[in-house]
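### Sample
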Amino acid sequence: MNRLQGIHIPNLDEKMGMNAEKYVNSLTKPPGSLGRLEEVVIELAKMTGEAFPEISPPGVIVFAADHGITSEGVSAFPQEVTCQMVRNFLNGGAAINVFSRSINARLSIVDIGVSSDIEDENLVKKKVRYGTANFLNEDAMSPDEAVKAIEIGFELGQKMINDGAKCLILGEMGIGNTTTSSAVAAAISGKNIDSLVGIGTGIEKNKIPYKQQVIMNALKRRKPAADDPIDVLSKVGGLEIAGMAGAMLAAASNRTPILIDGFICATAALVAKLISNQVTDYMILGHRSVEPGHTHVMELLGKKPLLDLEMRLGEGTGAAVAFPILQSAVLMLKEMATFETAQISNKE
């Protein structure tokens, strides 16, 4: 798969993880009393290979793209909202802007496949094509376009890390992308569509069976190969999903933790896992989305979420909201006293 074929993802540093665990147990608290914060910081030590992991500043990359499947009436919003929301991101008014500012994140907005042109000097223009095709009637994109979108994601993930990001958060914007994600997740997992499809951006519940039927019909016609990420992406995928998968691979190859957002981002993580199984070693799941498919995807990734706030916005918002938990974990390690330094008697 071009230059991604030779991607090298290093093994976790298990020795550093054991050192971190030993140090965590020497802190002035009963062992295990800080629960998952202790688990998280040990995982971060393994990922980064650092005794005291650095995760700040985080880097947020939001990939935007349109989906031809919206012409089937599967979304509550019209396709032009993708372009309008990209402008909102660029103007600083979206939820991900607010949450990125709150964690001092570096934010990058990428046009990887919006169906119209947007002129703004702050927009990263990497358009592969003007939206995907309607995958009910034809393949969403060509295999070459799928590979190109992954490579763009890898390039931009690498750039964000080169510019100083110590943790990567991926977000997306694309009307219709819960339908696309459900199709991708079903193709890879073999799960029944009925268990994967939710309301997305807010379609009426009585329209969910129609959305499910559209996806089932598309999968029967396209027949994507479950073990081939390029085949799945080209037949029923999305350009922003491919871009996020590529950025995840870049992060893992640099020992940079990836904080995974909701259903669409987790579906991209599934695609990245198909490309390189070790990529999941560098993932932490930020939150549980209310989209039903997210639970199944989390199981396939072997991850449990840090938060459950009943969110379903996307954009990377759930991951950004979860980031302070990672901050708390690393500060616990760096700033808490040990029993020895505090001269406190430890448990006999």
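The chain is about 45% helix and 10% strand. This sample (Nicotinate-nucleotide--dimethylbenzimidazole phosphoribosyltransferase) is used throughout the tutorial notebook.
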